From TrEMBL:
The keyword Transferase is assigned to this record: no
Any one GO molecular-function label of the UniProt entry: 7S RNA binding
SMART domains for this protein: AAA, SRP54, SRP54_N
GO biological process per UniProt: SRP-dependent cotranslational protein targeting to membrane
Complexes and interactors: Part of the signal recognition particle protein translocation system, which is composed of SRP and FtsY.
Entry remark concerning the domains of this protein: Composed of three domains: the N-terminal N domain, which is responsible for interactions with the ribosome, the central G domain, which binds GTP, and the C-terminal M domain, which binds the RNA and the signal sequence of the RNC.
Gene3D superfamilies (UniProt xref): P-loop containing nucleotide triphosphate hydrolases, Signal recognition particle SRP54, nucleotide-binding domain, Signal recognition particle, SRP54 subunit, M-domain
Protein name (database record): Signal recognition particle protein
Record's catalysed reaction(s): GTP + H2O = GDP + phosphate + H(+)
Organism this protein belongs to: Lacibacter cauensis
Role of this protein: Involved in targeting and insertion of nascent membrane proteins into the cytoplasmic membrane. Binds to the hydrophobic signal sequence of the ribosome-nascent chain (RNC) as it emerges from the ribosomes. The SRP-RNC complex is then targeted to the cytoplasmic membrane where it interacts with the SRP receptor FtsY.
Domain SRP54-type proteins GTP-binding: 268-281
Length: 440
């Protein structure tokens, strides 16, 4: 995510690293580089200029701190200002009321329907809500089908009226249905157009006036950069929306939309969406995003994702097994499954400080574990529970069964052995109790 911007900012800081203190003179090149990096990431020039002016004032005015060098001081100032530019602190979603109504608007293809499904899934699984999805696209029957399929995947009811050509009435009826069925949030997916047009705007505005939503979320494809910002402005002028959703952050996004939208429309980004799967939705935290842009990773989010998948009982059992040096292939497989549930692998890697950069040219697909899983799946339950059983002839059989070379099986067995040795060493150290998630 924002790889190019991260690299450019990092190299901008290099100019100032060796200096004893920040002065107007020695900061000039760094400031210029930061501005260029932002403009090249598709941030509007005016915003980039204002940003670097603020950074410059703060840097020159800042006290000389003995504990950090000017380079580090600059990074901190830029980090704080980036977070500020993206809204400062996270913006909560208003889901009060019975039902709370959330209206989704945006251009066709921006990811509205996908987001509606993800939001319903988020509210259901993370907030304990009972949502109802409403399909208010009266032009494209396929849009209703799409929402119905998504609803089926996440186990959320979808309200639609295929024959009704009155989007306002559909929205109102959906709310009635929600009340009758004790649903406490209604998410209304509206029609989109390829470009902004009057009919579309009027239709969404009419729905808004009729249902007075708690939230109007504007969904926009982050890959469209400055266009995203212009579209946001047009929608906001007409709808006065309450928040922005940036989609497709898993793509090759430069960062312009994320960095300029809040400034332009003065509405917070509430969610970022990074994938087509229903669980790839994240609350937007400006400070964490600033850290990621600066290549510092985002350990907080990583730990939260891990905790969300973390089964306390299972973890305790696992800890015991590790302590007794009984960690086996079945445990290994379960761990892989938990990691996979945490989300897109490349995205997870990017949350580890420095890792995003190190891995930038490496293609990591979500199938990365497939080979290892195939090997484990080809073992008998006895072999999984007792890796010592696995003789050379058994390895041959496993290789055949998993469609792997014997060399690959041997390499994996060796890695597993090394991992167990590591665990046993850690058990002997007092630090063993500090393994993440374990020992508590
Ligand atoms: P709508 O016309 O605004 O309802 O857009 P859709 O929800 O139908 O999305 C348009 C296309 O973008 C679909 O192919 C989605 O699968 C895809 N899409 C939506 N959100 C994301 C995302 O966050 N990442 C990626 N890679 N694709 C997405």
């Amino acid at each position: 995510m924002f790889q190019n911007l991260s690299e450019r900012l990092e190299s901008a800081f290099k100019n100032i690293k060796g200096e004893g203190r920040i002065t107007e003179l020695n900061i000039a090149a760094t400031v210029k580089d930061i501005r260029r990096a932002l403009v090249d990431a598709d941030v509007n020039y005016k915003i980039a200029k204002e940003f670097t002016d603020t950074v410059k004032d703060k840097a020159i005015g800042s006290k000389v701190l003995l504990a950090v060098n000017p380079g580090q001081q600059m990074v901190k100032i830029v980090q704080d200002e980036l977070a500020e530019l993206m809204g400062g602190t996270e913006a909560e979603l208003d889901i009060k009321g019975s039902p709370a109504v959330i209206l989704i608007a945006g251009l066709q293809g921006s990811g509205k329907t996908t987001f509606s499904g993800k939001l319903a899934n988020y509210l259901k699984t993370k907030k304990g809500k009972s949502p109802l999805l409403a399909a208010a696209d009266i032009y494209r029957p396929a849009a209703i089908d799409q929402l119905t399929v998504l609803g089926g995947q996440i186990g959320v009811d979808v309200y639609s009226e295929r024959e009704n050509k009155d989007a306002v009435a559909i929205a109102q009826n959906a709310i009635k249905e929600a009340k009758a069925k004790n649903k406490n949030v209604v998410i209304i997916d509206t029609a989109g157009r390829l470009a902004i047009d009057e009919v579309l705007m009027t239709e969404v505005a009419n729905i808004r006036n009729a249902v007075t939503p708690n939230e109007i979320l504007f969904v926009v494809d982050s890959m469209t950069g400055q266009d995203a910002v212009n579209t946001a402005k047009a929608f906001n002028d007409r709808l006065d929306f309450t928040g922005v959703v940036l989609t497709k952050l898993d793509g090759d996004t430069r960062g312009g939309a994320a960095l300029s939208i809040k400034y332009t429309v003065n509405k917070p980004i509430k969610f970022v969406s990074s994938g087509e799967k229903m669980d790839t939705l994240d609350v937007f935290y400006p400070d964490r995003m600033a850290q990621r842009i600066l290549g510092m990773g985002d350990i907080t989010s990583l730990v939260e994702k891990a905790q969300a998948q973390f089964d306390e009982e299972q973890a305790k059992k696992l800890e015991k097994k590790i302590r007794k040096n009984q960690f086996d292939f079945e445990d290994f497989k379960q761990q892989l499954e938990q990691i996979k549930k945490m989300g897109n692998l490349k995205d997870l890697m990017g949350m580890i400080p420095g890792m995003g950069k190190a891995m930038k040219d490496i293609e990591i697909s979500d199938d990365a574990f497939k080979g290892v899983e195939a090997i484990i799946n080809s073992m008998t339950p006895q072999e999984r529970a007792n890796p010592d059983l696995i003789s050379q002839s058994r390895r041959m059989r496993i290789a055949k069964g998993s469609g792997k070379d014997i060399a690959e099986v041997n390499a994996f067995m060796k890695q597993f052995e090394q991992m167990k040795q590591m665990m046993s060493m850690m058990n002997k150290m007092p630090m063993g109790r500090m393994m993440p998630g374990l020992g508590r």
